[in-house]
Every structure is written in C-alpha cells, then in structure tokens.
Amino acid sequence: MKIFSKTVLLKKEAAKEAYGYIKNVLNEEDEQDLMRAAVLKDLFDCGRCVMNVAQVYLKGIILPKEERLFGNDEELDEDELLKAEERIFFPEKRRKPAISVSIREIRQADISEVKKAGKARIIDVRSEEEFSRGHAEGAENIPLERLIINPHLIGNDIYEPIVFVCSKGLKSYKAALTAEEAGYRDIAYAKM
Q1: 104-191 placed in CATH 3.40.630.30
Q2: β-strands 104-105, 121-124 pairing
Q3: Taking the CA atoms of the chain, what radius of gyration do you get in angstroms?
Q4: Average pLDDT, the chain
Q5: Residue ranges of the domains in the chain?
C-alpha cells in the first residue's frame, strides 16, 4: 500500500490519511457542498475528523457503513484499504453518494425578515459559549450536541416552522436533518 500507514485502520484514521493524500499530494480540490455530508449521523462524533470524513465520503473514496452512517470506529482491513486506495488513484471507480433531502436553505439576509414576520422560530445550534458572544435577534439556543441526543427539545408542534442557524451552516444543516428524522415537517437552515 502506498497511502495508508497500516494494514488495518479505523475508518476515521483511514479518512484522515486518504484526505491528506488527495489534498497534499494529488492537489485535488475539496468538494464544496459539505452540506451533503451532514446526512451522516456520526459526522460530528469525532470533532477533528469532520472535514476528513466529509471529503472522502463525498468523493466516494471510503464508503459509508449504511446510507446515513459512516462508521467512524469501524475497522477497515487490508483488502478494504486497497479498494479505497484504488478509488483514490482512479476517480472513475469512485462511488459518490446519491443524496436527496427536502430541507430548504434560507439566505443569511432573510433570517431577520423571517423572525420579524413571525414566520418561524430561530434556533441557534452553536455552543452556549458561541451563542453568548452574539446571535440573531430573537434566536433561542439549543446546542447541536443536545439536539442530536433529544430532538424533541424543539417542542411538540411538528408543523411549527423552524429555522436552524449556526456560523457556517454545517451544524444548522445537521440539526435540520435531525429534526426531519424526528418527524418535524417545516424545517430550514441558514448560516449567520
């Protein structure tokens, strides 16, 4: 093997090594639509691994364990690592995920208009510390980590319009996916 340091690696370790290689050696451009990776339930399980996992998933280099689960702590054996290596060198062999979601994005400039018009609740999913440093007027704070554990912190009205916000849009998109899986119907996300 030319890329991987061992013959058996955890998926998150393999993702780090594969992403490092395609980024630093092959000088391959990053996938820009990171929101598509937020469908993975375990994307944020390893805070340092988010970009590595997102990129190798979106590029179709390391395949997910299930449709919406990457499997960060799953071991990849030598045969699986060789297949991933082959997909690195031969892009035509990559299996990019087909991802479809029905959650809408709201532009940053429209957040205050949505709130003023009383059209939706604004839920900021950043940490309490980040929220205390500044947030959209009228926003309430439910950190993503808490929301993932219990999506019903949102409330009982599954038809209430909700807009999730965060600084870059990735956490708010993940929150929207979590809410959608929990049965909420009128969901949007935005970055601040």
Answers
A1: no
A2: unpaired
A3: 18
A4: 88
A5: 9-93, 104-191
